[in-house]
Every structure is written in C-alpha cells, then in structure tokens.
Amino acid sequence: MPQSRLKNILLSPIILLLFAAGCSKVEYAKIDDPAYLRVFNNLNYTIGLDNKDEAVPFLTMLIDPEMDKDGIPVKAAVKGDFLDQREPYAPPYPSHIGTGISYKNVEYPGKENVLVGPILNGFDLSSWAQIPSGKHRVVFLFRPVNNVPFFDLDTKLKRSVLIDTTMVLDAKEVYTLHVLQKNFVTKKNGVYLRKENFHKLSLSDSLVYVNFYNMSAKGFVNASKDQKTSYKKSGALYGGIKDEMNIFYSLYTSEKTMKGPVYGYQNILLGKLTRNSEVLEVSPYYNFPLFADGKSNGKFTNIWQRLDLMTPGMDPANNPYEAFQMETDGNWAPVNCMTDGKSQLIGNDNAAQLPNMIVNIHSGVYNPRSFSTVNTIEIVNGNVYLTTVQRKYAPPIY
Amino acid sequence: MNTRKSIKKLLLLIPVLLLLFNSCKHEDLEIAKENENFRLASDFIKNNYDMSLFYAAIEKAGMKAQLQGPGPFTVLVPNNLAFQQIGISRPSDFDKMNQDSLKSLVQRHVLNYRLLTRDIPLNGVDIRYLTLAGEELYTTSSNFNPKGFANYQLDLFFNGAAVVKEDVNLANGALHVINKVMKYTPKSTVQDWLAKRPQYSIFVSGLKKFGLWDKLATAGPFTVFAPQNKEFEASNITEASIAALNTKNYNGKRLFGGYVMDKKHFFISDFFAFKFINDETVFIRKVDDDNWLMIMNSASDSFNRLNTLTLNLRTPVDFYTNYNTIYASTPGLSDNLTDNGLVHDVQGLLLLPEQALINNSPNN
C-alpha cells in the first residue's frame, strides 16, 4: 500500500508536466485573401570580358520594403533572397526545397519556407507563394553572389536597384512574375507580371496543354553573334528567334530518336508566336491528346514532343537547314521535350533540350501512370524554359 | 549467499577504483601554440627586406605613426621589384616626388579595415573597396572555374596588380603583397595622362592627326594601349613623318584607332580573370567604327604571377590576315588608371602606315 502511494506521488508530476505542455498555444501563419505568386529571374546573360560592367544577375526581391532616410531598404514584408538565374525546367511540385544544398534559389518561393498555394481547381499550386492581395511596392535589387542575407549586407551593396515598381495582386489569382532584360542594346531591365488563367479554364484530363511566350529582349536576335556566345547549349536557339514565328509540333514514341513517329501527329501547325515582353496577356493554350499513340494502353504513354519554331513561310517539310546547323539566323529553332531534358537526340541535333511535358509517375496501382499537364514554354533571348503545372493525382498504392 | 554477493561487489569495485586513479593522472599536453604576437603594420614592413622601398615611402609620407595605430588596416604592399619597374630603386628616389602625391600613393595602398581573401566574393569582378586616399579600388578575384577540373585557385588583383603573397596577419590588420604599384591619377582623363608624358608624344600626335584625341577627354571609359616613342622610332616614324601623312590616304581608325577601345575599362588582369572564370581564352572585338577585328590573347606565368597581354589586328573573317602582334608585358607600366579609363604601355606597333593605306589592304 505505501508502495503504491509512492508510485502515485512519483507519477503525478509527470502528468502535471503533460498538462502544462499541452497548454502552449501554436500560432499558425495565415494570410487572409492571398494572391499566389511565383517569381523567375530571366536575366540569363553571363558576365564576360565584353560586358564586365553589367551587374551580375543575382537578385533580391523585396515586397513592401521599408526604407531608411537614405533610401536603403531595412525591412520588407516579403523577401525573396538569393534569386539566381532560373533553371530550364520549373517542375509542377516544389522540388527545390529539401533537395538542394546551395543557398541559391532558382525561383521564388523555391527553397523559401513560406506559405504556398493550395490545390486550386485541381491544380497543385505548391510552387506558388501566398502573398497578401492588394497593391504592393516591389523592388528587385542586384546583390553580390554570397550567402549573406540581404539585410546583413554592407550598406553600399544594398543600393543597386534593378526596378522599383508597384503592382496590384488580386485575391485568389495566380501570378507569375518575370525579371527580364527588355532591351539587349541598352541593357534595360524590367519586370513582367502575368495573371495566369489555367485554373479558370475548362481543361480536359486527356489533353496536354501548352502555350508559348517569346519574352526576348528587343534587339537580341539582330545582335552580332559574338555577343551571344554564352547561349551555345540551346542549340540553334542560342542566337534567338525572329519576332514572328510559327510553331509546329510532332510526337514520337521512340527513346531519344526520331525513328518512332506517331502517325497523324507530325509537323502540325499549332499557332503563331510573337515576341512580347511588354503587353501582359496570356497566350492561348494549344493541346494534343495524351494518348495520341494508338498503341498505348490508356494508362501509360512514352510519347515525347518535338517543337519546331519556324519563320513564317517556312515549314518543317521544306526546311532549308540541316539538323546539325547551329546558325539558322533565327529562322528555325527546334526544341525537344524528351526524357529528363538533359539527353541529346541521337545524331547531329541542333534542338534545345527540355523535359517531357507528360508526367509519368506511380499513382494508384499503376506504375508508371501518365498524366496530362498544363505547360508554358518561354523563350528568353537564347534560352528556353518549361514550366509544368499538374493536377492533383491519386497517391501510389504499393 | 550474502557473502558471495559482497565479494562480487568488491571485485567490481577494483576496476572502478582503478579507473578513478587513472583519470587522476594528468600529463601536460603540448600543443603548438599559434603566434599571438603579430607585428604592427609599420614594424612588419620595416622588417621585411622585400618591402624596404614601400617602407621608405611610408616614412617619407609621414604615415608611419598612423600605421602603428590601432587600425584595423589592410596594407597592400608593392614589393621592391614593383617600385623598380617604375624607376624607383632606392629610398632617396622618393625625394624627387611631390610630398602630397607620395602620401596619396601610400594611402591608396591602405584600406581602413581588415580584408582577408576569404572576405572577397568568389569570382567577384571589379568589387570596390575604399582606401585611405578616399578612392575606390577595383578588386577582382578569379578563384573558381565552373567547368574546369582543377577549378580552385587563388588569383586576386587590386587595380590590376596581382597579389603574390596573401593574408599576412598583422596585430592591427592584414597585409597582402602585390607585384605592381597601383597607379591612379585623380581628377584626370586619359588625355591628360598621355599629354603629360613626353615619351608618348609620337602616339599623341598620331591620335591628334586622325581625330581621335578629343574624345579621350570625354566620359568614356576608354582603354588605351600606348606605344612609346622608341617603338615608333624603331620603324622610322617620327612626329614629322606623321604630320606629313595625308589623312585621306590612310585609315586612321585602324592605324591609331586600333590602340583605343571605347566604352571599355580593362585592366590587364581582366583577361586572366575571365580566362579562368569563363574560359574566354581569346577576346575578339571590332575596331571601333571599322570592320577589322582586334584579337587579344593572354599568357600568364603563374609562378611569378606575371601576365602578358598580346594584341593584334586582323582583317574580317573568311580570308583573314593577321598583322603585327604587340605586347603589354611589364606590369609596372600598365594599368594606369584615370577617371575616364586606363592606359597600358605596349611594346610594338599594330600597323605601319603603309599597312593602313586605303585601297591597299584586303577587305577594305
């Protein structure tokens, strides 16, 4: 009996401790009426001898900053630091967080630990950050390439403003914000805010959607090729494309070759692409069937996409250039959306490389299962970028 | 039963006691102690034979007491070879210099904070640091080549002067040894710089003759490669012979314009920095307002940190011809910084007048 009383006495403080711990209040961050924002740094030039006085394209984004009396930012409501040049592929899920060891962030929110978007109309917006809606002052600043947080930098390093502007973000709307070079000759930089509409459209599950933008700087395609040497990776696209282009697409099933065309889906004209880095409008979405290949089982398909950007009057069927030619004077730029976007087509191929638009992943009992996506292809000077948005899908069953 | 238990306990106690005794024994560990007695800046420089000329400059400029002060300072010390290259070989040579300009020369080599190589951003180009003279230094570090195998090295330049010994600790700061005296002429232009130096008079007369002189007083920036008179005289070109040239018959943009680069400010070290950072082994640019090309190659002696830049003119591509190669190889004579650009001394001539005759050269 005394033993059990002793036990009780010993146990009671533990229970009391548990009570005390249970009382602490957890404050969850919450933003009322948010807008959803994703930011890319499209300044894709390399600093070399010829342009050594240009600022290194490594940025800090400040939304609603507070400035001191000298105009130096001291605080900001939202800070997107270490914003590096964007990667060719912006995947449908926030892949950067948790996997990278670099302090550099290739997009915002990217690695930033912020509130992200929900699943809106079926689309996974976890790569979009929540930003309070309303009117905001947005400042982009060039910063030195090091891992010192922006506000800890030396005062003189916080002065190099790329752009200081205001923008209005509406609640529950999806935005992508691009930092762009607007003029290749004067090196004028600016921003481009696009209000996306993919989540409002009635898009089919069985079609893959893609739209195109040419946000290249004015004068890039006409500039001397000596000034474009840093874009060689993009194949014939490195020198840019003309301001007016037609887009053709072809589908193939064979791995890394063009030997397995999907018949009926060869050199089909999708539409027109006009260079535009000023007027903010969403380009129309074009589509092709997810299971265009008649041999696929309706669950998985291995098709990949080839896009040919050709100047009006030219057609892939009467293409005067050869596939090994890098110099096409902006008349022809092929893009392969194939595998992981890092493997070359076998043979002499002058195409730019991007990952496949179709997402193949283990879902339900199917491994892999193919999912249609909504894609945006952006051409900025000599580089091409793919942003893929995906619908929520069933988790895998093992 | 009980006795056995207690024996067991006793037996266990013995190793525990042993452990206790063992841990009581302390042997003095001998650790190599870092030297905490670093010298003050002036003392360190005074005690180093290869810095004797800079020490003399400090003394003559009346900066000795300041550099003994609390600091912190970063002293960029040109070694004696660097002074010899600009004609100063003994301490008494400083007597010929203006006291004020000597003082600002010394101040130009001192920063008022401690700057170690690790504080300078990787592959930073033209990063500015303020000196005691109130001017900003251009600092370039090329440490990292993203593509190369051996992609780390230490290459650091202050106003084009290569650092040959870095991160020397001082009691009141840090010290780096550089291979060149940093030269900056405040409140002057490239034009002023050339006009003041009689050894470039033939080059100046050529620039004047072909209408290239006036722009050198404008904002720029300009990079000028200037051959001395002896280079012209070796090819029998004098001020008189230039005066006698008929400008209509010669392409001045090539003959003299080839030495002048508009809208660029290049230190010789930039060619080495970008060779490492970007794999830019050759820099090709069009001669201003002309279709000929200027080819710039760089070669470096990494042991001595000596960098040589070679330049030559070339006709446009397809069936091109290369012309004379000239060199900027004496560190002491290059990287003369002014407010609107730089002047580098070069050896050799890009073109002889007869090579710049209109209608006589291919690809006109």
Automatic annotation (TrEMBL), chain A:
What domain of life does the native source organism fall in?
Answer: Bacteria
**Protein name per UniProt:** Lipoprotein
TrEMBL record, chain B:
Assigned GO CC terms: extracellular space
Record keywords: Signal
Q: What is this protein called?
A: Putative surface protein with fasciclin (FAS1) repeats
The UniProt record lists the FAS1 domain at 38-182, 187-350
PROSITE patterns with a match to the protein in the record: FAS1
**Signal in keyword set:** yes
Q: Entry's PANTHER family? A: FI19380P1, PERIOSTIN-RELATED
Classification from the root reads:
Bacteria, Pseudomonadati, Bacteroidota, Sphingobacteriia, Sphingobacteriales
Q: Where is the signal peptide?
A: 1-27
Q: Which domain of life is it from?
A: Bacteria
